[in-house]
Structures are given as C-alpha cells and as structure tokens.
Write a structure and sequence with these properties.
Elements: H1 2-11, H2 16-40, H3 46-57, H4 65-87, H5 105-149, H6 159-175, E1 182-190, H7 193-219, E2 225-230, E3 233-238, H8 243-259, E4 261-264, E5 267-270, E6 273-281, H9 287-303, E7 309-313
Parallel strand pairs: 6-7
Antiparallel strand pairs: 1-3, 1-6, 2-3, 4-5
Cofactor: Mg(2+)
Transmembrane segments: 20-40, 46-63, 68-91, 111-134
Protein name: diguanylate cyclase
C-alpha cells in the first residue's frame, strides 16, 4: 500500500481536488496502519495513543484543519472500534499472539478501558493545545506577512506582494483548467507628480499617494488586486475580467481620479493619471512579459498626451 501511494502521487493530475483529497488518503492510511499494528501486536497503550495523535496533529503545520480532521477518522475508527469489539468479546486483542497471551481476560479489559479513557483525555488536551498554539502562530505569521508584503504608506500590496498574488492567481486558474482565459494587468502613473511634490512638499505628495488606492477601490471589485508598484506607479490585477471590461473599468478609474479633489492643508490638489493595460492567456502567462507589455502601453499613454488609457492585448 505505501508503494502504491508513492506511485499514485507521481501519476495523479495536480489540481484542487487531488491537492485536498490525496493528503487525506495518505494521512488516513498512516494513522489507521499505525493503530492497527498496535492492536494486532497488543501495544494499544496510552503512550502509543499519544504518539499517534501527536504525530497526526503536527500535520496542522502543513495542511488545512479539515484535512487533518478527515484523515484522523480512520485512526479513531480502528482505535475505538477495535477496543469496543474486544471488550464485547467479538474479536480478540493482540491476535498475533493468540492463543498465547501474557495477561488474563479481566486484566486485558482493564488495560483497554484505561487506555480508552486516558488516550481520550490526553487526545482532547493535545487537540486544544495544538489548536491554541496553531492559532497564535498563524496570527503572528499573518502579521509578519503583512509587514513584508504591504507598502507602509498606502497600506496596499508592495511590488513583492503583487508578484506573489499574480502567481497565486495564475496557479489557481491553471488548476481550475481555465487556461484559455485572459489575465489582465494594468499600470497607472500619476501625471506630473514631481510638480505636486515641488508645490506642496512631500507631505502633500504622500497624501495624494494614500488617496489613489481609495479612489481605485471605489471603482473596482473586491476580488481585483491593487498595489503600489513603485514611486507614483500603481498596479491593478484583474480577476475574472475580459480585456474589454478591464478597459472600461480603467476609463472609469481615470475619470474618478481626474474629478477627485484631494484636500491637503488649505489646498485642494487635482491630479490625473495615465493607464497602460495588457493581457495574456493563462496557459502562458509570464509575469515578466506581461509587465513589459503593460509598461509599453503605459509609455504609449504618456506619449499620447497623458490622462488616457492605452492597451496591448494578446489576440
């Protein structure tokens, strides 16, 4: 059986279904095999129960909690089912050594009952301990990831965070078999931003930069991804959007930025933005190529008088 799982792991297609159910299959086989060996050899003790449960719970560091839950069920079936059937004299305990046993039936049942009670109590305590530890660890890791992937000024994704989100979106689409769909990417550059800094100072420029994502979010969907690409450039990654719809959305964003007045001190700052849009099919969506094409479209928008949207779409 272990060899068959090893072979299957190389042959099954990698998609969302197999990535969820195959670990359950492996964990269920591991836990039930370990418990079955203990039962057949007469090693069903509190110590082996704690070892089995503890080793399973360490999987919480690698897999979703639902995977651990379903993968543990075969182990619990063998443990409780075998113990209860033995106590009712339906199946023998430690059948490998039958009929040569080292204990009386009464003492054997006494040991099984103590094992059931002790393993259950310790298992529940371990589950609570692991769950508490994992919860605090995940909160800490999430906070650290936010510090690494967020731009401190705008509180949107930074360049690294955008790159990770792009790869995650492409992988998700590929696993779902949506290879013939487009992934759309947009870059916007604030027009004449240096003049804003010169006139209002860097504090005024920072105020403008903080307001741009808020304006964009009002005109985008919650699943669309916004981030600061660098300096006065922002990136938008469109999820489940055709190039034509993305073009229309960017035009709406352009008008919203142009019409918005940003309050700073006693002034109202008006700004415009140039947009570049590009799209590639999922099946060969290369991040570097898509950024280059989007940057070329942005350059064309600047050369066309700024405050407009230009595109470079793969046909």
């Amino acid at each position: 059986m272990p060899w068959s799982l090893y072979v299957i792991s190389y042959r099954i297609p990698e998609n969302q279904t197999t990535l969820y159910y195959f670990p359950i299959l492996c964990l269920g086989f591991y836990s039930s095999s370990l418990m079955s060996i203990g039962y057949f050899l007469g090693q069903m003790t509190v110590l082996t129960g704690v070892f089995t449960i503890g080793s399973i719970f360490t999987g919480l560091l690698l897999f979703k909690r639902s995977i651990i839950f379903w993968g543990t069920i075969p182990c619990l079936v063998v443990f409780y089912g075998g113990s209860l059937l033995t106590l009712r004299n339906i199946i023998p305990y430690a059948p490998v050594f039958q009929p040569y046993t080292f204990t009386s039936a009464e003492f054997q049942n006494f040991m099984l009952i103590n094992n059931l009670i002790g393993s259950t109590i310790i298992g529940v305590l371990l589950a609570i301990l692991f769950n508490t530890f994992l919860g605090r660890w995940m909160i800490r890791e999430e906070h650290q990831q936010q510090l690494i992937l967020l731009d401190p000024l705008t509180q949107t994704l930074n360049r690294r965070g955008l790159s990770i989100k792009f790869n995650q979106l492409v992988n998700q689409k590929q696993l779902a078999g949506q290879n013939k769909e487009h992934i759309c990417l947009a870059l916007l550059d604030l027009d004449w931003f240096k003049q804003v800094n010169d006139r209002y100072g860097h504090d005024g420029g920072d105020q403008v930069l903080k307001q741009i994502p808020k304006i964009l979010q009002k005109n985008l969907r919650s699943e669309d991804i916004i981030g600061r690409f660098g300096g006065e450039e922002f990136m938008i990654i469109f999820s489940n959007t055709s190039p034509q719809i993305a073009q229309n959305v960017l035009e709406r964003c352009r008008i919203a930025i142009e019409q918005h007045r940003i309050a700073y001190a006693e002034h109202e700052i008006q700004i415009t933005a140039s947009f570049g849009l590009s799209a590639l099919y999922i099946y060969h969506a290369d991040q570097h190529e898509l950024i280059q094409r989007t940057d070329a479209a942005l350059y064309k928008a600047k050369q066309s008088g700024r405050n407009n949207v230009q595109q470079d779409i793969e046909s």
